[in-house]
Amino acid sequence: QVQLVESGGGLVQAGGSLRLSCVDSGRTFSGYAMGWFRQAPGKEREFVGGIRWSAGSTVYADSVKGRFTISRDNAKTTLYLQMNSLKPEDTAVYYCALALSRSPFGLVRTDDYDYWGQGTQVTVSS
User: Fold this and answer.
1) Core-most of 33, 41, 52, 106, by most CB within 10 Å?
2) Tens of pLDDT along 31-69?
3) Burial of 58 (0-12, 13-18, 19+ CB in 10 A)
4) Cβ burial 16-55 (10 Å sphere, 16+ → b, else e)
5) In whole angstroms, how far apart are CA 93 and each of 17, 33, 70, 75, 124?
6) What is the pLDDT, as a whole number, of residue 119?
7) Each residue's pLDDT tens digit, 67-93
C-alpha cells in the first residue's frame, strides 16, 4: 500500500525559507505524477505545484511561481518542495499526493490524485 508522509513544516519568519519532504516508506514512487497542495483554515484545498514523475517536468500555481520549487532526489524516493520568500498567506497545511495515471486536466485537480499524505503545518509569521 502507498503511505505518503510529509515532513519539514514549522514556523518561519516572513521572507524566510523552508523545505518540505515527502516519502513513501523509503520506496521509489511509482505513478504518473506527484503534487503538492495546501489548505488554509476555512478554505478549499488548492494546488501548489506538481511534477510529472518520469519526465521530471513541473508546473506551479501562479501564487507561488518564482518562489517555490518542486524537485526529487536522484533515487526517486523523495519529493521536495523548496519554499523561499515565504509570506503570511502561505500559512496552511501542506499535503503531498500521488496520481497513478494521466489526467486530461493536467496536474492541478485534487480529484486526479489517488493517494494523500496527512499533511504538515507551515506557519509564516509577519
Assistant:
1) 33
2) 999 999 999 999 999 999 999 988 899 999 999 999 999
3) middle
4) eebebbbbbeeeebebbbbbbbbeeeeeebebbbbbbbee
5) 16, 20, 17, 27, 11
6) 98
7) 999 999 888 889 999 999 999 999 999
Q: How far apart are CA 34 and CA 95, in angstroms?
A: 11
Residues 6+ apart with CB under 8 A from 85: 15, 17, 67
Check: CB of residue 122 under 8 Å from CB of residue 92: yes
Dihedral pair phi/psi, residue 110, rounded to 5°: -60, -35
Asked if residues 15 and 86 have their Cβ atoms less than 8 Å apart, the reply is yes
* Cell numbers representing residue 122 in the block: 507551515
Backbone φ, ψ for residue 26 (5° rounding): 75, 0
Q: What angle do CA 112, 47, 121 make, to 5 degrees?
A: 115
